[in-house]
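Async update (no meeting this week)

Hi team, since we skipped the sync, here's where things stand on the single-chain job. The sequence we agreed to prioritize is pasted below, unchanged from the tracker. I ran it this morning and attached the output directly underneath so nobody has to dig for it. Comments welcome in thread, and please keep replies under the output.
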Amino acid sequence: MPYPYASPDPDPDPDSYPYLYPYVLLSAAVSLDGYLDDTTPERLLLSSPADFDRVDEVRASVDAILIGAGTIRADNPRLLVNSPERRAARVAAGRPPYPLKVTVSGSGDLDPAANFWHTGGEKVVYTTEKGAERARALGIAADVVPLGPELDWRRLLEHLYEVRGVRRLMVEGGGTIHTQLLQQGLADELQLVLAPLFVGDPTAPRLFGPAGNQGDSRGGSQGGHKGGQGGHRGGSQGGYQGGRLRLVETRRIEDVVLMRYEPTAPGTGPLPVAADRHWLALACELAAQCPPSRTAFSVGAVIVAADGTELARGHSREAGDPVVHAEEAALAKLDPADPRLPTATVYSSLEPCARRSSRPSPCARLILDAGVRRVVTAWREPDTFVTEADGTGLLSAQGVDVLVLADYAERAKAPNRHLERPESNDPK
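Output:
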């Protein structure tokens, strides 16, 4: 896989846990002055030949590719994996030769003659209840899925995950779709290619802008973005999340530059955002660093400020202390009066403990005393050492938002496999 990413574990039970979304990768190319295209009838080619091949490689790695209905009308893209070798590799791995092709249209106004419908593999249209009637009347070879009176990104992603088995989704436009996914915190990664040219036309489409209920999203597939400012609604229409994105890669590709970014700012309530997954993945990595024990879980924890700044991290049995817990170790590194704590998020690979004997206060109580109001975890504590442990219940009873992202449970459990038959009880 050419692009490492904080992918979720493959098959948690969707009936037991909500918030199961694919990994969402946004892909776009822009001019030096931030435009997706010019205003001429022809496509403005922004990517280089080598970058087109890179995009083909990314397409071959994903389960589905999504573009807006406006992009289909404007660019008439095929959205294929062009390399025969890459298609063959997909088939050899038990996958279809082409990823699932997905489009969104609130109105159901689709062009049935477009290449999108007549090339590649299966297609899905996400639309509204009214739009579904119109889309089905066109007779296109696609599964038409109404999401309700309005388009809803979270419902769309849940459907892709649970019904279509999509674990990795590439989004190629348009600009409004990219904007909405970023504003709602649902984009796990942005792959942005910077092309060495200027457009200089203030009426040309830009990559990002205000999102709203503006009809069908129009943008552009990678390399020739025929952008537009249409869009569709889904959840909050507020501004972008705060904090700086994390630059994870830069790469020169002929005369363009690829930059890969990940979000860092946690969510602010009971719904997860993409950055929550990245931080929880880090907590799981910290759990793997714990000194092994037959009498206690291996747990990692990270405390993150609202702007995405990492405040502290810790793991079980850190610094040779045989009974210190991950959340406890992380909180001990901060001033209890730190003004960032009330809006911070604690990420813990295992649910914070509600009872222990080795310290005066369990981790759930330490979190409450610190004033933290949001906790994200991968795994509810089993009865291995403490029966009916319920740190989540203790926290929730005090108004703390607790999110369980079960698609990381297997990663959190991995350092604890040896405890399936524990030899003694935890000295909690």
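Quick observations from my side:
Confidence is low (pLDDT under 50) at residues 1-17, 211-237, 422-428.
The two ends are 42 Å apart (CA to CA).
Reply here if anything looks off.
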